[in-house]
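tool=predict chain=A
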Amino acid sequence: MVDITKLRNIGIIAHIDAGKTTVSERILYYTGKTYKMGEVHEGTTVMDYLEEEQRRGITITAAATSCPWADHQINLIDTPGHIDFTAEVERSLRILDGAVVVFDASEGVQAQSETVWRQGRKYQLPCICFVNKMDKTGADFEMCVESIRTKLEANPLVLQLPIGAEDSFTGVIDLVLMKALYYDVDVMGARYRLEAIPEEYSAKAAKYRAAMLEQIAEYDDQLLDRFVHDGPIDQDMIERAIRKGTIACKFNPILVGAALKNTGIQRLLDAVVAYLPSPLDKPAMVAHKPDDKKAKDVKLDCDPQGPVVALAFKIVSDPHGDLTYLRIYRGTVRPGIRLLNPNRQVRENITRIFQMHADERIAMEQAGAGEIVAVVGPKETLTGDTLCDPRHPLVLPSISFPHTVITMSIEPKSASDRLRLSEALRALRREDPSFEYHGDPETGQTVISGMGELHLEVLCGKLVKEWKVAVRVGKPRVAYREAITTSARAEGRFVRQTGGRGQYGHVVLELEPLLSEDRGWADGMEFEAAVQSGAVPKEFFPAVERGAAEALKRGVLGGYPVMGVRVRLVDGSFHTVDSSDLAFEQAAQIAVEKGLKDAGPVLLEPVMRVQVETPEAYLGAVQANLLARRGTIVDCQVRGKIRLIDAKVPLAEMFGYSSHLRGITAGRGTFTMEPLCYQRVPDTVAQQVLA
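tool=predict ok
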């Protein structure tokens, strides 16, 4: 097994088109994992191995690989940059120990940069920043660093400076080595030479070096003493201090290069090894016992000898056996082992273990704590489930995914396609937790939901190409939600007598709005049992919770799912013989349906954060059009002759916006959007939606 101290589990994350996959391909080449550089524009990348990825030139699914560098093993996951596939980023960051965030030097922080940064912060991931594309027209290193500081509220630690920019970009000044690095184009950047810093850059390099030392001095006593007394400071002291501060998320090292021109990657790899944590450097993952969420958390030491605890973070359907990707937090997994899934209360066999290289499998005899692997065998396990030693059952925190924002109807073209469609949708849902589907009882159609038009388009393409299902799809529609605005109390009673044993369940529930920190409606439902004197026995609490959750899947206004509700069980009654889980589930559904009607139900719609780039001449027309779409202008920034508009716009108003924007900007405007929140639909609009 690998030495855990020399293991680095990292992700490459970025806004779309920042050069993230190109960085990953250079990493594979320089570490000797591949012998030919894959190129996004040629459709020859290793990490974007799906036909759809190569055709579109974007990453759709997170791809994992492992490569050696400086006597270390780097487990790398290349994630999508498009907002429609943000669930792939979410589940990847959940199980990683660090990340490299790639920025376009001409753009700085972009919309999806902010999204992935927030996701990384949620999991307290130490991050290195790589300012890429210094050879691109408009590249501006200082602007990019400042945008990291201001937009991300980060603390950038500049470790490198570019020599030139755009066409004149020729190399990198390394402030740790205090040398200039020039990459040899004859061997595609595989070698670089160290030279003295050019005279015209010496003052700037000295200034940035002094600022760097001041930032890191407090993280190493020996360095601090020498910094204060102007003593000699060696490379080991500097790297030790940078590592300590980076792992503590006190600052983010900034490196620079141009991946497409094969510049800057080796020192980026050195930084990954030197500054990002091993699994042993991270705080211990915590778990809890399956039947007692209130029990004291159990800290999991990263110990290969302990009882197994692992998290399933990705499922990939495969005709030769579905692959379940695992992050092992404790213990050692071997072929033939039998593990408990406490989330599903089933036992799963592990028949084979693989180290993955994109879509290639390398068989392993065992995998230990800290490693990321794929296994064959589990049948019932889903993304976010725990697999553990049956003698020591524990449950890890699961993975949360954003609500879907867009829906469309889908139906098979023939009766023979109907059965295959059902099977295919189940498989797609198992693979992709951000995809949902259900039958519409009014139309008889199947309705699919996802994170955006591209997301659903890609999934429909899978149905045709991989599952050979011919389908007709409807136009995209908004995925509305419902919520409540006031508290309500309701009673539900389910009584059935059929001659033998009957059914009896009786509950009194209180419903109240559940708000998030920003005072909007929170995700999902929160259940609380507050009954007195055993009015409802404890063993029926889970049934009441399930019944309430089921009722909230269909609201009272338009049948849309209800979000942001706290359900409190306050009273009820039971029968010693006739009460059952089924009866209490039904009673809870009846109570919730009644309560929703009395709790001021309202319609909610997804609101998108929209960023538009337009030449200054079209600024007025673009802003007016956004306002006409019920949008709110949040900010407008100047970037040379370009204006960057930040706005909030309901998704319902954004269909067809791409072609409209091209029309009002003579084809020169571009935009990106990402889900921001759900907010109440104005009454006049709600009447039209619900009509």
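The chain is about 25% helix and 30% strand. The first strand starts at residue 7 and ends at 14.
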